[in-house]
Each structure stands twice: as structure tokens, then as C-alpha cells.
Amino acid sequence: MLKGFAPLALLAATAILALGWVMGRTGGLDVLPAETYKAEPSEFHGRHLALLAAHGTGQSLDGIPVVRPPAGSDIPVLAKRWEFSPALELEPGKTYRLHLLAEDTVHSAAIGEAEVLLTPGEVRVVTLTTPASGRVRLQCAEYCGLSHTKMIGSIEVVAGK
Length: 161
Hints:
alpha/beta, 2 domains, 8-stranded mixed β-sheet, copper ion binding, 5-stranded mixed β-sheet, single chain, cytochrome-c oxidase activity, CcO_II-like_C, Cupredoxin
């Protein structure tokens, strides 16, 4: 009787471990739908610098430049140890496209209650519609080093200034 139970017990244990791995990997977050394309780091950096020049506020948040792009913008966001750049000030109730690139190692972007995995050399495009007010959570959910827990970006929803 016990010998016939062993394969079933092994299968159940494997299923439980697999489920635990998936839940631990995503933190229970939903996976964001994202368009993906390849990008040369230098080209992406150029777009990032162009955004800072065109829409920078002249302010910084913990050394990260703050930008206020117009609604509907395509916004290049760099993920690197241990920051997301730039810090964003976005209008309430508007839609934006975040182009996310991991510069140095694997990261992920947990945006609100969902996430997208970021790998170097691949840009993930996530559509974000902002709430009426407040902040949108942006945090790395993939262990990327000792200061991983401090890798929190800034998406502040502000009325037009």
C-alpha cells in the first residue's frame, strides 16, 4: 500500500514546490503585458538624455532627475543597481508608455500590483494609466544585489503645473 503511494506523494510535493517557486518569483503579483524589442544601450541612453533635456524639471529626488513629460508620452526608464531613472511626475488619469531597460543585470519592475521582468538588452514597454492622485508603486521585485530592497522608483501623480 505504501509503495503505491510514493509516486503520488512525490508528484504532490513537486507541484507544491513549483507553486511556491512561482509565487516567490512573482511575489504573488500579476504579470504585466509588455511589448518587447531589442535596443542598443547607447541608443536607449540617447533617448533617456533627450527626455531629461526636453522635460526635466531641474529638480532631483535622491540624485535622480525628475521629469514631467506630456500625457501620451513614450518614456525611457533605466533600471540599474539600485535605481530607476528618471523620477516621474505624471498627470492624473492619463496614459503613458514606459520603455523599461535593465542596464546592468536582471531586474523587474513591479508597477502597482503587477510586474514585468527586465533583462539587459531588451526593452519592455508597459502602458500605464495613472490614478486620479497619489503615487504609483515602482519597485524592483527581482533580487539584484545587496541594496535590492532600496530599488524603488518614483511615479508621482500631480495635477498640471
